[in-house]
Amino acid sequence: MSFNTEWVTLGKHRTRLSATHGFPTETLRTLAEISKIGIEHTMSARARLVEVLLRDEDGVYIVSVATTVPQDKACVAPLELALTTLMGLPLDRITVTVAVLSEAEVELKYGVYERLIAQKLGAVAPIQ
Questions:
Q1: pLDDT per residue over 64-90, tens digit each?
Q2: Which domain holds residue 69?
């Protein structure tokens, strides 16, 4: 059992919260909730929040998003700025990464879509 990882459902987003050392904190959960709101209001309907990772060594938060719409990459800088402002952190403490997958790589049905994009980003292992 892994104690450094927690799965949460935030609306249509099935998100993995993880920390490199220790437990996911309330700050990590808050960042995930704020990220979800930012993603839903700035990116396409296909964008999903896949993982929020805290690297405890340097205090950097990494927000991983997957989508099938390439234009969503343009939303990274404004989203990072909004998240750092709301969390009261310096700009170099939050990194948003967007992985663009082709529609051929994922099934667009609800539930299956979330699982496949998490699998493609490496957040979950493939089903055996």
A1: 998 888 999 999 999 999 999 999 999
A2: 5-121
